[in-house]
Design a protein that fits this description.
Number of strands: 2
Distance between the termini: 24 Å
Low-confidence stretches: none
Order of helices and strands: HEHHHHEHHH
Structural class: mainly alpha
Helix content: 55-70%
Shape: globular
Number of helices: 8
Largest sheet: 2 strands, antiparallel
Strand content: under 5%
């Protein structure tokens, strides 16, 4: 059974501090950091990562910091730093792919909200055995919220300077599902091998 590590979630806190410091230094939506389609096409590929660290206003920043600290702590304490970073990178990649290939009309984007949905689904996996019903309810509710936002064309809970992009939230949610399925597949492999050993065969001891 998965249990939380009681150690300080230093990576989640470090990343949150980095995002806050960046906003303090550069201000809202720094032109050199946000997702700018024309600039990326011209070779400024760093924006595919830096755009997720930039925010359009203080409300945008505070909501995302709350999510990063909370969800990042759960993921780090249950699954470790490597999986936290891997989930963040996969979420960033899938959000970028959706923005670039599926939304060619979108010129600008910034914020962590898409990637936070990756952490949300991953964090729910950590809570599954303790409360599967609540986990399913929250997971389904988060997906329904995203689908409503996509149909309405606006965020349900926040009103930031730059309009919300619900498709990025869905991309992040799907990336989180991929992380969870990948974890379950890796965990199931040793168990599958043990159950398929020929009768009378014992694995060699160490």
């Amino acid at each position: 059974m998965l249990t939380a590590d009681s150690r300080m979630p230093w990576m989640a806190l470090l990343l949150s501090g980095l995002v806050a410091a960046l906003f303090a230094v550069t201000g809202p939506a720094p032109a050199e950091w946000v997702y700018d389609r024309d600039a990326i096409a011209a070779g400024e590929a760093w924006r595919l990562l830096s755009s997720h660290l930039s925010h359009s206003d203080l409300e945008h920043l505070l909501w995302n910091l709350l999510g990063l600290v909370t969800l990042g702590t759960i993921v780090e304490q249950h699954f470790g730093v490597k999986l936290l970073l891997g989930a963040l990178l996969l979420g960033s990649l899938l959000v970028d792919l959706v923005l670039w290939w599926a939304m060619p009309w979108l010129s600008y984007y910034c914020g962590l909200s898409g990637v936070l949905n990756t952490l949300l689904v991953t964090a729910l996996a950590a809570l599954w055995r303790q409360s599967p019903q609540i986990t399913l309810l929250v997971g389904a509710g988060s997906l329904l919220k995203i689908l409503w936002e996509m149909s309405a064309g606006q965020a349900l809970l926040t009103h930031t300077t730059w309009a919300s992009v619900p498709a990025a939230h869905l991309a992040g949610w799907i990336a989180g599902l991929a992380v969870v399925l990948g974890m379950w597949a890796v965990q199931a492999t040793p168990e599958r091998r043990r159950t398929t050993l020929p009768a009378g065969h014992r694995p060699a001891g160490k």
